[in-house]
Each structure stands twice: as structure tokens, then as C-alpha cells.
Design brief:
Length: 143
């Protein structure tokens, strides 16, 4: 994998996986995360769930796409979650040696903070993606 340079543009994607809806509301959807397993040997207590923002008016942003539309989903429903190929800016990149213990396995070997082009001038407008771990996230350089 290439080393992303800060302020460079990349195409980020992640193949879709099925996930069960835990809850919908308060501007977010919570899913049983389809990637990774709980690492019981970790001091961090990840519960196997992951919440994504669903309201664009909130400052929080993530590149994940949930289908069907969140407005159609209820707890217990099955949906797909993915990152369609998306052009993003690299705000920060770090490698972890040993892999970073975050409570799930496999643990990530790198972290990359990405920002969408329309939010490049906004502080804290991006999201940290963990690479080399459970999620099959692909990062491609834009020449």
C-alpha cells in the first residue's frame, strides 16, 4: 500500500457487507458492525456495534453508505454498509507498530483521517478510517 501524503487526494472504497440495525434515531443509525470481532483480551470494551451519522446538519461526517435509505430501516432489519469509491483529502496518516489495540480483531496497522473536498476548509470535518485491520478499506492514490 502506498503511504498517503497529507493534503493529497485519494479514492477510498470499502466493499459492501450485510449488517443488522440495532437502533435508528438521534441523528444516527447503530449497526452490528459486519467487520472485526470483539477482542476479549483488550482493555478496550468494544461491543461490536458502530454508529453512523444520518443527519447532514450535524458536524459529524463519515463516508459510509447504508442501503436501503435509513428512513426505511427499523431495529432488526438487515441492510448493507459500504464506502462507494469516494474522492477525499488526507488530513492525517499514521502507522501503528504493533497494530493499534482498539478492542476489535484484527487490529488496524494504520489510521488515516480523511476529509471530503467540500469540507476541506472546516476544522474537524473529517473522519478517521482504520486500515489494515477488519474493514476491507481500499485507498488509491490520485496522480
Amino acid at each position: 500500500m502506498m503511504l498517503p501524503q497529507v493534503s493529497s487526494q485519494v479514492i477510498v472504497s470499502c466493499e459492501s457487507a450485510s449488517a443488522q440495525v440495532v437502533s435508528v434515531g438521534s441523528g444516527q443509525i447503530t449497526l452490528e458492525w459486519p467487520w472485526g470481532v470483539i477482542d476479549n483480551s483488550s482493555n478496550f470494551r468494544w461491543d461490536g456495534k458502530f454508529s453512523l451519522p444520518i443527519d447532514d446538519s450535524r458536524s459529524e461526517w463519515m463516508p459510509y453508505l447504508v442501503e436501503p435509505a435509513v428512513s426505511e430501516l427499523r431495529p432488526g432489519d438487515i441492510c448493507t454498509v459500504s464506502i462507494p469509491p469516494t474522492r477525499l483529502y488526507v488530513g492525517h496518516y499514521e502507522e501503528y507498530n504493533p497494530p493499534r489495540n482498539l478492542g476489535w480483531s484484527p487490529a488496524p496497522t494504520a489510521g488515516m483521517y480523511v476529509v471530503p473536498p467540500e469540507k476541506i476548509d472546516q476544522e474537524d470535518a473529517g473522519c478517521m478510517l482504520y486500515l489494515g485491520g477488519a474493514e476491507p478499506i481500499r485507498v488509491e492514490a490520485i496522480e
